[in-house]
Amino acid sequence: MSDEGKAQKLISFFVCQKDLDVENFLKEKAVLFEKLGKSRTYFIFDEDDDEFKILAYFTLAIQVLKVPEDLLSGRKTKIFDGFSPKARGIKITEFPAILIGQLGKNDLTQECISGFEVMEYCLATLLEGQARLGGRIIMLECKDIPALINLYERFGFQKLEKEYVEGELIQMFKILMDDEIIEPQDHR
Q1: What is the pTM of this model?
Q2: ∠ CA 130-136-137, rounded to 5°
Q3: Domains of the chain and any CATH numbers
Q4: Contact of 61 with 38, CB cutoff 8 Å
Q5: Residue 17 neighbours by CB distance under 10 Å
Q6: What pLDDT is recorded for position 46?
Q7: What pLDDT sits at residue 76?
Q8: pLDDT greater than 50 at residue 188
């Protein structure tokens, strides 16, 4: 069996009834997005268990955070950008970001890991990449569910305050401060 076939078999045992988008992404798009270089999907599993079961997964990608111009003062733009509120004399409204594209727990093993632990794994992996590539903004989109928003706020994420239409995903972001940005290691 090919590596892709093995991955598809493992993925087939992932169930997320709370959010079918999370389940469907993993089963229908994750492998293709890997091949296309659009994102990277990471599995969390119990290394002590003899049988490999996906406890949870998360997907990371590069994205552009677009902030409506009317929400950005010069000071706030400089906070997002880290350097300047303008580029070539034009107010900056788009910022490179690291996207937590998907994040979900497997219903079949949900007692084995908490959402808080999934976020800890996700952010640890994300910061390893940030150390090599840079970046200062982390973003995610989630349904307007208070428990989800509360979880992300516990990790320092803020809701992007803008007008949302009914059913639109809430955008949340976290700007890494100087003491959170990992200095690259000398790999000589």
Answers
A1: 0.87
A2: 110
A3: 3-175 (3.40.630.30)
A4: yes
A5: 8
A6: 84
A7: 78
A8: no
